[in-house]
Specification:
This protein is mainly beta. The protein is built from 1 helix and 27 strands. The protein is rod-shaped, with a radius of gyration of 43 Å. Pfam families: Big_2.
């Protein structure tokens, strides 16, 4: 019985010795359990010149030494360090802290104590090559103005980077307000796209750490369509008209085209050949006095366009004339085609005009007189001015 007991004690003691030896086998992983160190290491610094390691070109090297604080720390000899690069494409580093440049750019050197990860330090490593000396936006592109009209207009330009042999020519493009304008670059062409009203600063910056950049201002405005006040307008002349009620529309003289009731009334211009209508070859028209000269550059016309049943009362095109004496009319734009598939059409004129009187001459979609359709209908006609607003 005693022999068995002694043998068991020997086995336990041997196992304990083996376990302790296994846990202490790594000579670089030193643990001093239960030992109190007076004046321990509290931090480290990297012995580099300035705030970063600057390597002139690819293949250049620099050794990094480490200083522990305090310098007389009691456990300073026990510290081992791990060196890593945030981007091996820029530089690599070995276990002794030798930094080797592998490409142009910037990356971070990280150093951490292996036996105390709370102790660490880092610094920037820049592989300089030939740095950008200047980035220049041409004066013509310094102040860009874009005007939106239910679209997103763009502006293209380029920049000049010097010197030509700069090692890193890639640039960074940013906008101060994505709600106003965006910016991107494709194959050397920089494109600014308008988004909404306002102003934004476009910044173009070198990526080589040189800090070189240039900026331009983008102002986005919008078009606003302002209809002319028709309260003083008066219908003063027209070709022969007819007063009928057809398809819930009441037609009559030219006053109906400016009565602000484009849903229910229309001017009914008799076609050539209709009883009481104009002689063949004479125009169908109406004339309006606006009361005073007004500037305008766009029109809005409404008619009974849609539906094949009413094809004989549609207009195909019209011409617009202006006058300041009511007698001599100048052509402003002629033969403006109107699609017969829509009710209302608004569009810009070729130019801005200022007149007191205007005349609208229409050409019927069909000159035939069938099923009593001896006329064409124009429900509403408006003039206005498109202006730019900030």
């Amino acid at each position: 019985m005693k022999k068995t007991y002694y043998l068991l004690l020997l086995l336990v003691a041997g196992f304990a010795a083996t376990f302790v030896a296994a846990c202490s086998n790594d000579e670089n992983d030193e643990e001093y359990i239960g030992e109190i160190i007076d004046n321990p290491v509290t931090g480290i610094t990297l012995n580099v010149t300035g705030s970063e390691i600057a390597l002139p070109d690819i293949g250049d090297t620099e050794s990094v030494a480490i200083s522990a604080t305090p310098a007389n720390a009691g456990d300073i000899e026990r510290y081992h360090y791990l060196f890593t690069s945030s981007d091996p494409r820029v530089f690599t580093v070995n276990n002794e802290g030798l930094v080797t440049a592998t490409g142009y750019g910037e990356a971070i050197l990280n150093v951490v104590a292996q036996n105390n990860t709370a102790i660490s330090a880092k610094c920037k490593v820049a592989v300089l090559g030939v740095r950008v000396a200047s980035i220049t936006i041409a004066d013509a592109s310094k102040n860009i103005e874009l005007v939106r009209d239910n679209n997103f207009p763009t502006y293209n330009f380029s920049v000049t980077v010097t010197p030509d042999n700069a090692s890193i020519k890639t640039l960074k493009y940013t906008t101060s307000d994505y709600k106003v304008a965006t910016v991107k670059e494709i194959d050397g062409t920089i494109t600014v796209t308008s988004v909404g009203k306002g102003a934004a600063i476009i910044r173009i910056e070198a990526k080589d750490g040189s800090g070189k950049y240039d900026e331009c201002k983008v102002t986005v405005k919008e078009y606003e369509y302002r209809l002319l006040d028709r309260s003083k307008w008066a219908a003063i002349d027209s070709s022969p008209t007819t007063e009928v009620t057809v398809d819930e529309y009441t037609s009559g003289g030219p006053a109906y085209v400016i009565d602000n009731d484009g849903l229910n009334t229309a001017v009914g211009l008799l076609k050539a050949g209709a009883p009481g209508g104009p002689v063949s070859g004479q125009p169908l028209y109406f004339t309006i006095d606006m009361g005073e000269a007004k500037a305008f550059n766009y029109y809005s016309i409404s008619g009974l366009w849609a539906g094949s049943l009413n094809s004989y009362v549609k207009i195909n095109r019209f011409s617009l004339y202006g006058s300041n004496d009511g007698e001599i009319f100048t052509p402003l734009q002629e033969n403006i085609t109107v699609s017969t598939s829509v009710y209302d059409v608004s569009a810009l004129l070729n130019n801005t005009h200022t007149y007191r009187y205007f005349k609208v001459a229409v050409t019927p979609s069909s000159t035939g007189i069938t099923s009593g359709r001896t006329y064409v209908l124009v429900k509403d006609f408006k003039l206005g001015e498109r202006v730019i607003v900030s």
